[in-house]
Amino acid sequence: MDRHLSEAGDTSANEESDTEKVPRTLRDAPAKSDRKKSKRQAQPDDTKEEEDEATRELQQRTQKYKRGAEASGKVRSKKAQAGIDHAQKQKAEAAKAAARSEMLLTESGGYLEAEGTERTFKFTQRQIAENVDIGSTDKMFNLKLDEFGPYSLKYSANGRHMLLGGRRGHIACVDWRNGRLGCELHVRETVRDVCWLHNESLFAVAQKKQAYIYDHTGAEVHSLTRHIEPTALGFMPHHMLLASTGMTGRVVYQDVTEGRVAGEHRSGYGPSHVLRISPYNAVAHVGHGNGVVTLWGPQQPQALAKVHCHRGPVQALALDSSGTYMATSGLDGRVRIWDIRRFEPLHEYRTARPAQALDISQRGLLAAAWGRSVSIWKDALTTRVGAPYMRHQLEADVSSAGFVPYDDVLGCGHAQGVASVLVPGAGEPNFDALVANPFQTPRQRQETEVRMLLDKLPADSVQLDPNFIGRMDPRTRAQQHSDSLADAHLRHAAARDSGAHLDSAVRNKTKGRNSTAKRYARKRNANVVDLKRLQEMERLEKDLRESAAKRRKGPLPAHETGALHRFYTEKNNTR
Amino acid sequence: MKVKALSRSAADYARETKSDIQRLPRNVDPVLHPLERAREYKRALNAAKLERMFAKPFLASLGGHIDGIYAMAKNAWDLDHITTGSGDGEVRVWSLSKQATAWRAPGAHRGMVKGICNVPGGSTDRFLSVGTDKLAKVWSRTEGAVTADGTTPEPVATYSGKHAFGAVDHHRSRPLFATSSSLVEVWDVDRSEPIANLTWGADTVNTVRMNQTEVNVLASCGTDRSVILYDLRTNSPLAKLVMTLSTNAIAWNPMEAFVFAAANEDHNVYTFDMRRMDHATNVLRDHVSAVMDVDYAPTGQELVSGSYDRSVRLWDAARGHSRDVYHTKRMQRVFCVKYTQDNAYVLSGSDDSNLRLWRARASERMGPKSNRERATIEYADKLKDRYKHVDDVRKVLRQRNIPKAIKRASQTKQDMHASRRRKEENERKTARPGSKPRAPERSKAILGVTSK
């Protein structure tokens, strides 16, 4: 019966659409939306419900792909408004198309689920190995390197290559999936950190006095003398910048394409050992001995933000790839989760001992290592969870931990070598071959390198909000003008307070050729405010005062609207 | 225990044979593409720079005429050939693919050749020329006889008028053509006398242009600053538009039959809707001297104009300023321009006796393109369009090397406009409110419209 009904419904729909096919003139043809509506009416109710369900689901998935909020309000120009509307429409369509394209993703993520009374954190690696395929068991291994530890380790952006740095001078890079050793060298001095550059052909090492760059054969390519006693390294792949922090407490940025130092900032908090680059906005997060985490951009001399995170020194730091969460661990034995958009603590975990290493996986698992144990939490960023997702014991104290991109593996460097632990559900299952390709051919690597150089971002484009480029200024021209006036006023006041305008006097008085005073005056001349400048500033101030006064007064009464109007003031309005 | 770990087989991601393309799975999740706005912007900037780097619009200069080129005609049915007439009375047909003269008639007219047009339809290669010698001649490359000395071709037909001719245009479908002299005359090709004289008070008519879509309408412009529309069915004028300065040339929009562009002495090109001529639909202002000729692209979306300031400008019909300006060191006053029928080239004829061939889009390259190439170009265009308002990109896209004379003149013009506007505003401040309304730019140059 149902079938019959639905058939009847279908035929009626067909008939309708047939008649609709040939509108006599353009004006007779119904609008597109009307046509859709009429078709939908012809369908039976259950299919309609299904369709609604499907559209609702699609809308939910679309949310992820909507970049930014829709423009609110209207602009006065019809042409500009039409352009904005068109762009909005295209944006919405693109988001929908992106959501639809999810069905083309071939892989699904890993998982580990308990059944009955089991608990996931009780599962050992051996138990897991018995239940996964042979390809995955290959990823669990333990490198026994007990001479030169403890080890720090990093994975390349596509997760294919592993870089090991033993504290006592042993450096090795390994294609760990194939078990192929790339290069191995002993530098015979302290190695504090290692870092891949833009691909697996170059890497940087933080050594005793300075940082060095080596190539994939282990040959020293550059010595970076400006990085003094570095302790932690980070690389910004889109900007091609190598960042380091060290015993001097400075944050140094070096452009690896040109060799130029792009920025060198004094943090003022003494030696620091923790540095992470945010994958979301490329801001460097540096942890300090007083529990503060400072955020740096290469071209801003001041920290972009300072967050007081712990009562003791910051031990480790991890950032998630969506730019929302930061996890920090301090010597006070806490692991704190922060919302770094608002710099607010969300919640905290207590650890048995202060966590030495932290990392966040692509799918949001948090790994924290203290002593010999590594704990992995699931959903630990969004909510405060009770029990960990997984636990693992190593044979020595852990010094560093890092998830492998696009794989379910956590690598741990410890005092007696390196361990690779299987963590189901850690990695992003579907990689984008144009971003990072685990199956990259040498030719593709070369092409990607050229592409990266062409798309290299200028160092000054690092900001807390990565989408500031191309954004519309919503202020009206009048507002912009008044804002700039207010700015000038403030700057003037600041200059007057600091006594900068007195510098010109210093310059006039000095007689010697190259005295200290003169040099000092020259230095300060950057901010000299001479008479002319002062007059200009006074004028600006006056403008500001007047415009404020005018605003207070309000419009003139409309008694006289003729040519004599301008001779009237409020006071003598009655002629 | 239920467990699954990621395990990709390399075979799934490798190509099967060496001749296959590599498999590149995509994932459009925004989290995997950080800093996308900044990277897109950087690509837009690169694209803009590349565009300007590859902008080499000049293709060829075709020499041969002894005097300046004052008349030019394109043939919608024959992309290769262009006909030009010069000041010494010579008419030439050029082959653009060979970049050489295909046919010539030295001494086609005694005095200047003022107008040339092709006979529409692909069946014939005839074309007409008119000159200051009061003669209109029909020529053909194939059927023309040659004079006794064997050098000069003979016209197929000759018509003699009473006054020196200024322009000629042929009817789209019927065997009629119109000439302008002190009046507009309509000729039947089979008769030696004009079949109609159309006049509405002008001393000299500069140009006459037949509408090739709405075929019975023709427009003329005269030295009395008027643009007059005539209807061939009634042999009477439709409407007359008087502007502040006279119009030098007219071009009908090939896609919107009721729209025409007028190249004016006041340095501007005006586009009009012939149904409502009390205001222009657009004012194209960038030239710094009188505009001598204007032509629509076959799409009707773009225009090309040539000016007395020795430059050729290309315009988007919907915008007020030119999108590009072409000039060379040796190009003199430009008297005629044409957009070719394949929308890819622009031709200019100037005082220096050369016909110049330009690209319509300066950085575009000719020839077939692979799909990837096309996709890249489209992506670059889209990026440039998206970021065209951002300072750096805009600066690169707008940068042009302009001759000093033009630059200085445009600066002077700008100053003059600004001071005039300031003066008006000052006057407005002291006048009774409402007594000095602001005139829209689009109707400022229009003195009046009379309809019949």
Descriptive overview:
The complex is a heterodimer of chains A (575) and B (452). Chain A is built from eleven helices and 29 strands. Chain A is an alpha+beta fold and 575 residues long. Chain A has two domains: 120-452, 7 Propeller (Methylamine Dehydrogenase, Chain H); 477-567. Chain A has a four-stranded antiparallel sheet. Chain A is globular and about 95 Å long. The model of chain A is unreliable at 1-40 and 505-510 (pLDDT under 50). Chain B has 452 residues and is an alpha+beta fold. Chain B has two domains: 35-55 and 370-400, no CATH class; 58-359, YVTN repeat-like/Quinoprotein amine dehydrogenase (Methylamine Dehydrogenase, Chain H, 7 Propeller), CATH 2.130.10. Chain B is built from six helices and 30 strands. A five-stranded antiparallel sheet of chain B has the order 15-16-17-18-30. Chain B has a four-stranded antiparallel sheet with strand order 2-29-28-27, with no helix packed on it. A four-stranded antiparallel sheet of chain B has the order 3-4-5-6, with no helix packed on it. In chain B, a hairpin with a 5-residue loop joins strand 25 (312-316) and strand 26. Chain B starts with a strand and ends with a strand. The model of chain B has no long low-confidence stretch (mean pLDDT 93). Classes of the chains: A alpha+beta (575), B alpha+beta (452). Chains A and B meet through strand 1 and helix 5 of A and strand 1, helix 1 and helix 2 of B. Strand 1 of chain A pairs antiparallel with strand 1 of chain B, so a sheet runs across the interface.
